[in-house]
Automatic annotation (TrEMBL):
Hydrolase among keywords: no
Family per record: Belongs to the MAGUK family.
Phylogenetic lineage: Eukaryota, Metazoa, Spiralia, Lophotrochozoa, Annelida
Domain Guanylate kinase-like: 146-337
A Pfam family: Guanylate_kin
CDD domains assigned to the protein according to its UniProt record, in alphabetical order: SH3_MPP
Name the UniProt record assigns to this protein: Guanylate kinase
Amino acid sequence: MSQVRVRAHFDYNPKDDKLIPCKEAGLSFKKGDILHIVSQEDATWWQARIEGGGRTRAGLIPGKQLQEKREATKVSPVSPESPSTKDKEQKGHRMGGMFSPKSLVRRTRRVKRIVSCGQLAEDTEPEEIVTPYEDVTQYYPKAGVYRPIILIGPPGVGRKTLVQRLMSLRSGHFKTPVTSTSRPKKVTEISGETFAFVARDEMERDINSNRFVDHWEVGGHLYATSMEQIISVVNEGSVGIISPQPQALKQLHVAELKPYVIFIKPPAFERLKQGRTAANAKLCSGGVWSQTFKDDDFREMLHTADKIETSCSHYFDCVLVNEDLQETVEELCHIADRLELEPSWMPSVWLQ
Ligand SMILES: Nc1ncnc2c1ncn2[C@@H]1O[C@H](COP(=O)(O)OP(=O)(O)OP(=O)(O)O)[C@@H](O)[C@H]1O
């Protein structure tokens, strides 16, 4: 029997499929499910079962080529010069252009680059292709070497708070990488502990030469994280916790790091508003939590979460809805424990 396992990058319901020869023989699955491909004898209709779904029967699913063809006709391939592409990319500008329509088509990605004194320039990155199925293999944990955990989510969803809670629960075990910053050092701080203090012009040069995988600006000061800073946490034998911007995912989702990506998602509007209001939650601006959330802030958070999910879900290993803070922290600890003790799925190319 075939040993092929894939991660599905789209939702499938045979009931909605006009082409499937027999709807009853089809297997429905969700984006992110791991599928055991039992047979690829027929290139158009593979047979698969859901991995970890108990002794479920195998069913028909569209083969890779069929699905790619379908996706290609759903969203017409776009050239970088076409006005429609430009419009869409400009709408996605705020989050670094990750929000062009996600499909199995080629996409260009705009990135913001700091050129001087906070001015932003734009550039394009090589195209990215998202396949309908990604080959995955089980990775067996090694003692003392932990997969770093990446938390992705819209601003305000609670990633900083979650990182702080994890660090205070198991300090030394969970660790965030040292961040480079152009802000002045306080007398109590030691460079290289939490922050590496660097002159602004040096940071700008390093950002422009792509030394950092993630960079941002708060209160007029630059902050950035490099791949070396993240790898040094892994080499220390700690569980690295990283909460980068979505556009950093492409550079972080590599064999060198083998990260486990968790999407921190807000609950639906009413639950979000109720929970955050009861907790007197505050928006972080310029590095300080000051303003309380307004309805528009909740709407913006939900809208951004949708956009991140649309454009980045192929990177997600797991989605956690951050409704009850304590439950989310417990679930994160549980995931970290499982990653340390049990095999986990990752792209096969990372293990070749
Ligand atoms: N599940 C939750 N229930 C209630 N309040 C929460 C929850 N999670 C986080 N908060 C509160 O929401 C506010 C914003 O959280 P936080 O600053 O951690 O978000 P963030 O995702 O790091 O934001 P940013 O990306 O903008 O830095 C804080 O006041 C925090 O205490």
